[in-house]
Amino acid sequence: MATMRAAAALLGAVVLLCALRHGGAQRYEAIYSFGDSISDTGNLCVGGCPSWLTTGQSPYGETFFKRPTGRCSDGRVIVDFLAEHFGLPLLPASKAGGDFKKGANMAIIGATTMDFAFFQSIGLSDKIWNNGPLDTQIQWFRKLLPSACGKDCKRHLSKSLFVVGEFGGNDYNAALFSGRTMADVRGYVPRVVSHIVRGLENMIRLGAMDVVVPGVLPIGCFPIYLTLYGTSNAGDYDGDGCLKSHNELSAHHNSLLRRSLANLQRTYPRTRIMYADFYAQVIQMIRAPQNFGKLMMQFRLQNF
């Protein structure tokens, strides 16, 4: 739980600094968030958390909300830190309904980039737990627009911050945990990244102007991967004790995503597209965890 809290604070601060890259005086009317368990603030628990959902049970939420909220943390997550910084209320889960004039969170635990048809096409329809993929989250967003901005959505969205992702992690998890080879999974990366970019383009056409897009994390450092795919061959690990091939998958995704975002920025020069380098920051936390007890950190960011 402490590790989750530190990671949430770290990632939240990365996105925060990214959003402030062009000046500390930046203000937003709203924040609209899309993503998976890193960002979900309760969408999966609207109407009550499923009994099998451990994050809907104690001790989750104990350090801030004093109760489980559906967040995969014992405290706040990325968008909570962002909202607090910009003087906005914590983002309501979009599925809960309500007033969305100051933002909404479409993120939901288990979200993938690709929809069910994709996983069916690669023979994983009976394996994937696909809950609110990117296209579905965009549909949720479109439905709430009338209550958020009425007939003046272009102006409102141009003055809002969009946080889109990370996306991709659960797509690769589904394939790897189902026994697909690393070569197979690397082959899915271009399709996953292209789908992210298409989703971003849809948001930009709706009026989004400031968009933060995180990359995926170094999954080769995750305890679950180290446990499931650990070997006795020292050559399978990098200098940080992480699985090389799995981190190379993450790095491949991030490299292609950065190139694609640069192309998208050229297509929409008036839009500010910001890449948040989650990968590098988590590696730094692994290498020097003693340095990350407070949000007094330096961050590597790339603007296009």
From TrEMBL:
InterPro entries on file: GDSL, SGNH_hydro_sf, SGNH_plant_lipase-like
Superkingdom of this protein's organism: Eukaryota
The entry's keywords: Glycoprotein, Hydrolase, Signal
GO molecular function, one term: hydrolase activity, acting on ester bonds
Signal peptide stretch: 1-25
Family: Belongs to the 'GDSL' lipolytic enzyme family.
Name of the molecule in the record: GDSL esterase/lipase
